[in-house]
Amino acid sequence: MSLTLRTISREQHLAYIQSLSAASHMQVPAWADVKSEWRSENLGWFDATGQLVGAGLVLYRQLPKIKRYLAYLPEGPVINWYAPNLEDWLRPMLAHLKQQGAFSVKMGPPVVIRRWDSAAIKSGIQSPDVKRLRDIEATFIEPRAFEVAERLRRMGWQQGEDGGAGFGDVQPRYVFQVPLENRSLEDVHKGFNQLWRRNIKKAEKAGVEVVQGGYEHLAEWQRLYEITAERDHFRPRPLSYFQRMWTALNTEDPNRMRLYFAMHENEAVAAATMLIVGGHVWYSYGASANHKREVRPSNAMQWRMLRDAYALGATVYDLRGISDSLDETDHLFGLIQFKVGTGGQAAEYLGEWDFPLNKFLHKALDIYMSRR
């Protein structure tokens, strides 16, 4: 199959994404507006008949003082990763990005390599010999993913540093997902562990009400988010980031981003953002107050979001990043413990891959990033 690559319009890119069952929210054209500090470009792959068969959002970050760029395709590009001629898809992309002044390319193939169901993870947590997800036998392995990795290595791509939980500048390699396809809501609820079911009931009894908010409620979201950041020791994004995200994503598609609040006695005690692209729904950011945790607002909110995702016809509800550590002393252990209670699956993606177009500048960036 002969392929050509060229810059496409945002409209073409969006139409292509809308023709698919799902794609990453970081590969929709509007994501470029969210990441406004990067320059962006929409790429399209065309077959011999001139039909658009793949797309990619590229973000360019300029090096200080020189006109050379890191080209980044977060959770993309959106192409046929299992194609036997993968080189024919990626070589023209590298040539194009080099022409655009890129010294290095980073991408995140949206390819799942392994999955572990909740039962396997629970038994792993209970075993003293198990320290990481990889120590547990996977419930599902995708053999074609290993072929993709092998093809990338042969082409000269290098696997990036393992992002682990990926709460830094890279996307998470390990995520937690609740499959919804061919399941009833009753099945999904039955899949929750006892503690989750009990907590949902407890929230209901206590009078916790989950409501949707709009742009005007983002300041209230920010208040809870900053409380969470202080409690969990991470640096929060500014309110302007979420305002930009809301405006950009919902201008592109009025149902791309949602905001939820768990209310108790007329007070917002937990909040979350939700992103929707086709059949893939993400719980994107979460926040909660330091008090009233005993009324279990987070469980109530997740159950409402899951039900709403189901009503939208979603095939997967994605709770995003987890650490691969199953060590109870790890500060991120509570996160996987909370998510495992939903009865979903941990998924390992291929991770991010780098192609140094200029080895000297690529090495210099590596050194700079490691010192930062």
Automatic annotation (TrEMBL):
Under the heading InterPro entries, the entry gives:
Acyl_CoA_acyltransferase, FEMABX, PG_Glycine_Bridge_Synth
Which BP terms from GO are recorded?
A: cell wall organization; peptidoglycan biosynthetic process; regulation of cell shape
One GO MF term attached to the UniProt entry? aminoacyltransferase activity
Query: Which keywords does UniProt give here?
Result: Acyltransferase, Cell shape, Cell wall biogenesis/degradation, Peptidoglycan synthesis, Transferase
Q: Where are the transmembrane segments?
A: none
The family line of this record is:
Belongs to the FemABX family.
- Name of the protein described by the UniProt record: Peptidoglycan bridge formation protein FemAB
Q: Which organism is it from?
A: Streptomyces antioxidans
